[in-house]
Structures are given as structure tokens and as C-alpha cells.
Amino acid sequence: GMGKDLYEHSAAVRGLYALAADEMHYDIARLSFEGPAEELKQTRFTQPAILLHSLAVLTVLGERIPAFDYAAGHSLGEYGALAAAGALTYEQAIRAVVRRASLMEDACRQRPGTMAAIMGLDGERVEAVCREASAAGVVVPANYNSGIQLVISGSVEGIDRAIELAKAAGAKRAMKLEVGGAFHSPLMEPAREGLREYLADREIRTPSKPVVANVTAESVGDAETIRRLLVEQITSPVKWAQTMAYLVAQGVTTIYEIGPGKVLTGLAKRDMNGPVSVNLDTLADIEALGAVQTN
Q1: Distances 22 to 9, 18, 90, 91 between C-alpha atoms, Å
Q2: Which residue of the set 75, 146, 155, 236 is catalytic?
Q3: Are strands 173-176 and 219-220 parallel, antiparallel or unpaired?
Q4: Is-above-0.85 flag for pTM?
Q5: Residue among 10, 54, 184, 219 flagged as catalytic
Q6: pLDDT tens, position by position, 9-43
């Protein structure tokens, strides 16, 4: 059901889903709204579906999008952030994410792996766990989601060993995630090279506002740096906790989470010391903001 109310409200949103369907040769609107969930969880479908939902919110907001000083997105969400800041058109973002998702799913088949969530250990201790577990197989930090919530990524053997070591080190929880592969790890190298080739001749514009990159947790404002970091992001960790620390240092006190769910808002409340948070997920959320447009 994700995004269905926005799809029904706006012809422009329906156009974005139609574009994605043409790129994917698949009815992504039907899958997003009706499932089955197991199919929607496949990487090649999940990524475009989430991006489309975010772009649908932005489309319905139109010129009434709240004023902002920085844009940021978690992993795939970086493409939505770049679209919000005008570095990519919505159509370019969709095409790029369809390609990214396909490349990442292919890489998952070529080099199988998995991921695990570690809670209750800080970044340094998780990094130490990964170094020790690497004797069993590839394993690296993949998402620094908050000060005490990290995700690790790598081979099944490496992840299994890291879970054992994390529990022994005092982690409150250490558990495998239901994911299609070892995202943001060296096992994604084939996808990285494929994305490099794809983005090489694609237009990227200077964003209207700084976009905080996952790879560096610092703002970027020029097209070539954005292009390079989108490629690096495939095999690099998402520095989300560091991104929130950066935003706090810039004086950010209000955040808008655009797209499905409230996960990032929850992380921000923990690591940004309770910012004013607004979730824009459904048509009702946008109506509550007083910013609905018919288009």
C-alpha cells in the first residue's frame, strides 16, 4: 500500500510510476500497492519502490516543499535527497536507481553475503569485532545508524563469526537481517563498477542546497564530487550517525523525513537531542502540513 494515496491523488505521480515501469519492464505500482511482500523485498524492486514513494511526496508538495538548508538520505535515500536539491531531476533519479538496484541484485548473486544489526556497542568496538571476525570471511561496518546501532555486512561466515564476537563483547542484540546481500561491503564491487560506467556520462547539476554525502558525512556541492561519491557509496559504509552530528554542528533543529516510515526520525531524536521532526509519508501528512497540491 505504500504511496497508493499519493498515486491516486496526482497525475504527475502516476507519470513517475509509469516511467519506472517502462525502465523496469515491470508494474512497480501494482507491486508497491498490492504486493506480494516477498517479491517487494527483492532489491531490484525495493529500491525503486522506496524512491518513488519519496518522489511522490515531493511531487505532491510541489512548490510548497518546506524551506530547507541541507538535504541527506540514507543509502538509496541519497538519490531522493539529490532530487530534492535539484542535482538530479526526478526522472534521472528514477533511472539511476533502477540501474543501481539491478546492478546490486546481480552482485548479490555473483558474490552472496548477508548483513547483521549490532546494538549496544559503539563504532570502535564494532570495528574491532569486524577486524577479528575477518579471519572467517569478509565482514565490515556497513551502516553507522546511531551511536549504538550499527549494521555489519559481508560473507555469511564472516557475519556468523562477528555475531558471536559481538555478543561476547557485550552487545545487547546481534542478529542477522533479512536482506538480499552484503550491501555497502567489498562484495558489492561488481555493482560499483557497473554504476561508475552508468553515471560517467549522466548529467548531474550543482545542487541548490548542500547535500550531506553518506560516504563522508560532509556536505557536497559540486557535480563531479557527487558523481564520485555515489559510486563509492556502493562499497562504503553509510555514515548516518556522523551525518546527524554534522547537521547538529551546523545548527539544524528541524528535520523533515520524506518517504515511507519513521525510522530516520527515530534515529534523529536519539542522536540529535530531540529535533523538531515532521514525517511526510502519506497524503494526510501533507494535508496536515497545509501543503497539498493537485497536479
Answers
A1: 21, 6, 15, 12
A2: 75
A3: unpaired
A4: yes
A5: 184
A6: 999 999 999 999 999 999 999 999 998 988 998 99
